Amino acid sequence: MEKLFSIGNLSKRTGVSTRSIRHYESLGLLSCAAVTDSNYRMYSEKEMKRLQQILLLKNLGFSLNEILEVLSVEESVKVAALFEDKLKALDQEAKRITKRKEMLEAVTKIYKNNGYEYISSFHLIKEMVSMNTRFIRIFNRLKVETQIKVLKELYQTGTLLPQTLKEIGEMDGHLFLEELHLILVKSLLNGVDFQTEKNIMETLRESDPEFAKVTMKAMFTFDDFARLPDSVIRTWASKCEDGQLVIALKDSNNYLTNKILMNMHSDRALKLKKELENDELVSLDKSFEAMENLINLLRELEKNGEVVIDRLDY
Predict the structure, then answer these.
(1) What is the pLDDT of residues 151-178, one digit of tens each?
(2) Distance (Å, rounded) from C-alpha 211 to C-alpha 215?
(3) How far apart are CA 128 and CA 241, in angstroms?
(4) Going by C-beta distance under 8 Å and a sequence separation of 6 or more, which residues neighbour residue 228?
(5) Could you tell me where the DSSP H helices lie in the chain?
(6) In what order do the strands lie in the sheet with 5-6?
(7) Most buried one in 95, 101, 198, 232, CB count within 10 A?
(8) How many CB atoms lie within 10 A of CB 283?
(9) In whole angstroms, what is the distance from residue 28 CA to residue 69 CA?
(10) What does the pLDDT read at residue 53?
């Protein structure tokens, strides 16, 4: 005869409160094995196993309605599809959490340096710009005196005076401002919903095709490779020329460099790492050209269906 136990015993065995067990029953997630003459609900090992499945799915992030759907499906293929859908949803949530974490890091830095009065959208954008963009590479190469002058002029006027542009170098100075403006465009577009962004881009393609191209360029920069899934990085890296990678990574942060190297064959990664340790300075023109070529390669792979890039990846 099958061993049965009360709701109290089921609660002790599983760590689930009797109230929750009754709630699961009311939703149709769980049922009892039998009811005694005294109207006590009794449960078997089968119900305990079912309750453990419910707990597992809850811990994996499934809602009670989703759990009911999973446990109601008998075909293994359909269950697997539901699990895959949940995986995709968790991936999206992880990306959103990463973005929120980056913003919180920026807010924390602003607060530590300036206090509450500087926590605003304007200062947050400025901080995010410094954390996530490539134009900072130009800034890093400037003399301290010029760096200070750049900071003051950007704070006071939002642009750079002609004399400062000459000190940076006319070409690099204008590139610096162009990169800054592109990132501000990107920050604004990434802050709107997908439909708004789509409407803006469709209108731009008709009214101002050239600016539409500039805007598309702003939507993905070389630093954004750090946000892509490893599977995309592996496919893309397998198609990259080593020379282009070395030039592009010379001015990149350690996190991005390590992420790319970790997603290729160890022998190749070791070879590239040794080349990157060479102290030879690469011109910014060559560096940015290599970055643009590698971005174009990614776009080509996406166009051909070899990789799939979600908007939330960057």
Answers:
(1) 788 777 777 788 887 777 755 566 666 6
(2) 6
(3) 31
(4) 236, 309, 313, 314
(5) 7-14, 18-27, 45-59, 64-72, 76-114, 121-132, 136-140, 144-157, 162-168, 170-191, 194-207, 209-218, 230-239, 242-249, 254-262, 266-276, 284-303
(6) 5-6, 41-43, 34-35
(7) 232
(8) 10
(9) 11
(10) 92
Give the per-residue pLDDT at 237: 94
Tokens of 48: 């305990």
168 close to 138: Cβ distance less than 8 angstroms: yes
pLDDT per residue over 252-294, tens digit each?
778 788 889 999 999 999 999 999 888 777 776 788 788 888 9
Q: In whole angstroms, how large is the CA radius of gyration of the chain?
A: 28
Asked whether the beta carbons of 126 and 151 are under 8 A apart, the reply is no
Write down all domains in the chain, each with its CATH number in brackets.
5-72 (1.10.1660.10), 138-219 (no CATH), 223-314 (1.10.220.30)
303 vs 234: CA distance, rounded Å: 17
Q: Which two tokens stand for residue 94?
A: 């992880």
Structure tokens at 306: 């070899």
